[in-house]
Specification:
By secondary structure, the chain is of the alpha/beta class. Helices cover 31% and strands 22% of the residues. It is built from 10 helices and 16 strands. The radius of gyration is 21 Å and the shape is globular.
Length: 376
Amino acid sequence: MATFSLHQSSLFSSTTLQTRPRSRLAISTKVRMSLQETGPSIAVVGVTGAVGQEFLSVLSDRDFPYRSIKMLASKRSAGRRLTFQENEYVIEELTADSFNGVDIALFSAGGSISREFGPIAVDKGTIVVDNSSAFRMDEKVPLVIPEVNPEAMGDIKLGNGKGALIANPNCSTIICLVAATPLHRRATVKRMVVSTYQAASGAGAAAMEELEQQTREVLEGRPPTCKIFSQQYAFNLFSHNASVQSNGYNEEEMKMVKETRKIWNDPDVKVTATCIRVPVMRAHAESVNLQFEKPLDEDTARDILKSAPGIVVIDDRTANHFPTPLEVSNKDDVAVGRIRRDLSQEGNQGLDIFVCGDQIRKGAALNAIQIAEMLL
């Protein structure tokens, strides 16, 4: 029977799960703090994927209390052993019976799995935090970024036997709105123009492997292997691989438009996006241009961002030091810099900012765990 450790896989240890080193004493203490008889029972759906593994890393890092945890995946992964917080678990095949007695289920196994098994889990009294796009635009399902709109899930309670669905927004939307919302609250955004520079991590572990493989192949003068994407990724960039719709926008771009309006509860806010894949292993970057109803100068904006939750400001003009994907990889906070007045707008009616955030962590797993923490 195969054994799978949170830190054993070469892919996860080298590119997607570089967790902070801990002493044996620290690990033991964390296990004691996390395993609690009074904690909820947890299930991780899609545990062998990049985000599934990050779920486990964040649960451990944040001492999330649980009395039991189920590791769920596809039939082909069932039976493999996984080590988490010094305990060994057998990965179980996801079935309709997987959610018996489960309080909170963290889903990251794709939209089709979520659509099939999410409602089943809810019917069994489980609160599902879903990382796919399956339910994001459902009017009955809250779409939540804890730093932005925690009130959206105010009616959902743990322990009353009632299941519920909560949707995790798209990674690019999360990273953008963590940074833009504090400014929106002060001056009200009328229009937002976003250009994204999205890492391989957004397309999963296989895309990260392919970027690494292509880089070696190109440097060695060999033709690149193109299985995940239809064109060369290494030393190149191209329009996001999501399908292009009749209006010329791809699905990723329209997710940012629609999700922003829902999260901000403002159907009239104008949003446009251009989403690009860049050959970065992990963490997305975004250029965000904001037009406000009320004036907001750059110094006030910088002060607002410095005190906002989930944000670190990196904005050193003298040293030309601003956020980079490398700096935020494996980090919880979204980094914001290049904070400057938009010279194309009159007065202080517009700002430009540059944002970087770890797509797997804050853009997926961490946001879901923060949602789960709000249920405790």
